[in-house]
Amino acid sequence: MKKPLRIAIYSGEIPSTTFIERLITSVADTGAEVILFGALHKQPKYNPRVKVVGYRPTRFSKFWCLFRFTVLLTLFKRAEKKRLETYLKQQQTTDLYTKVKYYPVLWYQPDVFHIQWAKGLDDWMWVQDFGMKLVLSLRGAHINYSPIADSKLAGMYHRNFPKVNGFHAVSEAIALEAGKYGANRAAIRVIKSGLNLEDFAFKLKEFDSNTPLNIVSVGRDHWKKNYRSALDAMFILKQQGVPFQYHIIGVVENEALLFQRAQLGLEKEVSFIEAMPFNRVKEFIQQADVLLLPSVEEGIANVVLEAMALGTLVVSTDCGGMAEVVFPNQTGFLVPVRDAQAMAMALVEVSQLSLEDYRGITFKAREFVERNQSEETMVAGMMEVYERVVGRGK
Predict the structure, then answer these.
(1) CA 107: distance to chain centroid?
(2) Gap between the Cα atoms of 19 and 256, Å rounded
């Protein structure tokens, strides 16, 4: 009987994003032992196979963590501790915080150390010298544009990507980007983000082309979300005589967007809404006729998958891996990046759809998510990566 894999899922903070929290729970449900390392902001609740090894972001908690693992390593892993200390001296990183991060990992020595954010890769290359296999997730900004804007980060990727044991890419487009930095294509597994479909009940809408089009976008106040083009598209939509309401959730006091809205005369049609709990966001998506993604960069946007699962039609730019899930006139509408005219025309086309055609597209979108974006598919893919890097898989 195979010994269960011991897998560390590291994101730096405990708890982490919703996606990572789902991954942790689901991987533990397969029978693997999951260990979480990092700063502990609140005590999460997991099944018994998830071990939380964290420290509070206070000086006392860090000192206690350091004392505890210093004693354990000195008593039971003296040689390994000495090797790690030599490495830290070579790297000139012997500070308290670094040891607080590293000592617990050396003590538990998981089979797999899975890093969630590529920018932190350089901090963890050492684990391979102690028999741990290194897996890196590749998502959105960390691989799409950050290394383009930061030459030092690009250099770090070029130096380290060829050494990583396994990669998890959220899209084929991102897998190609990783190859530019020397990642071995054979080590990359494309695993699409999975949804717990029980949390996303599909509902056929009573879409009526004679009522104002209800459009929603969801995302933080960041340039890559490209809300400026979205507002330009709304101006064109208004000129076309299409009645609509557009809500942007996650943006409130962006001076440039407020000015643009006023300059375009869209105060009555466009509203900016502060970030809110996901259940409320989900209600907005369910009530909308269209989920608009105007971004210039994404991996595969979770909010698009969520809208597709819920039965809300998607209009998305052809950025990142979005073309891998949004197929024109089948599962949604896809438009060129930074093309406000094309975005507006797609929305005009949606506004003119019959109820039958609208429902047909949203039904196909739901079927696509069920086939390709389930949580079960995602977890099975991740377990294949873990098994393969330790020599158990194909």
Answers:
(1) 29
(2) 31
Task: Tell me the pLDDT tens digit for each residue of 147-177.
Answer: 888 999 999 999 999 999 999 998 888 899 8
Helix (H) or strand (E) holding 34, with range, is: strand 33-40
**The tokens 């000129």 sit on which residue?**
239
- As given in the structure block, the two tokens for residue 355 are 């109820």
The position carrying tokens 């974006």 is 373
Q: What is the DSSP string of 304-316?
A: HHHHHHHT-EEEE
- pLDDT class of 46 with cuts at 50, 70, 90: confident
What DSSP state is assigned to residue 237? H
Residue type for position 190? V
CA 146 to the chain's CA centroid: 15
Residue linked to tokens 């005219």:
341
Q: Tokens for 198, please give them.
A: 């029980």
Q: What is the rounded CA–CA span in Å between residue 118 and residue 160?
A: 10
**Structural contact between residues 30 and 7, judged by C-beta atoms closer than 8 angstroms:** no
Query: 66-100 pLDDT, tens per residue?
Result: 999 999 999 999 999 999 999 999 999 888 889 99
Is the Cα torsion angle 45, 48, 53, 59 positive or negative in sign?
A: positive
